[in-house]
Write a structure and sequence with these properties.
Largest sheet: 7 strands, mixed
Distance between the termini: 26 Å
Order of helices and strands: EHHEEEHEHEE
Number of strands: 7
Oligomer: single chain
Number of helices: 4
Strand order of the largest sheet: 1-2-3-4-5-7-6
Structural class: alpha+beta
Radius of gyration: 15 Å
Length: 152
């Protein structure tokens, strides 16, 4: 999809129902409505990606921490993955962080999320640590998180 035909705007409370639906469709252990509302209440930088017709394609949420931006959540509709939109959204997130004069970006990713790991590695993120049993997983299990960082 041509990025010129996309609209990347700040997320608002009016977007939460659609964002939550997308979240639940792509993640086995999705964020709750409360997670999204809390992030918006804290005024964390967040964006929704929409097609020219207004259809929601993806979103991301960030959290500034001193001079580093934490990528809290990035999701893209399953039928839109593999088309370069994840990279486009990641670049939008980095641009947002640079505009706030952040010097680096940090994120956690599940080792089982091969597609996201590949995206982040291609975009200059390097593994810097491991958070043991960080994510809830199915069957009351826990999954580690690979911590990755890139300079901005």
């Amino acid at each position: 999809m041509n990025p010129a035909l996309l609209d990347c705007e700040p997320m608002t409370h009016a977007d939460v129902d659609e964002v939550l639906e997308l979240e639940q469709s792509v993640y086995p252990m999705p964020w709750s409505r409360g997670n999204f509302l809390d992030a918006l209440s804290c005024a964390y930088p967040s964006r929704v990606l929409r097609a020219a017709d207004g259809e929601l394609l993806g979103y991301f949420l960030l959290m500034p921490m001193l001079d580093e931006m934490h990528l809290l959540n990035l999701a893209l509709r399953a039928d839109q993955q593999g088309r370069g939109l994840g990279r486009f959204m990641l670049e939008q997130a980095k641009a947002c962080a640079r505009a706030m004069e952040m010097t680096s970006m940090l994120l956690e990713v599940r080792p089982s999320n091969a597609r996201a790991l590949a995206l982040y590695a291609r975009d200059g993120f390097l593994p810097v640590g491991l958070r043991k049993a960080y994510y809830p997983a199915l069957g009351q299990q826990r999954e580690d998180a690979i911590v990755m960082r890139c300079a901005l």
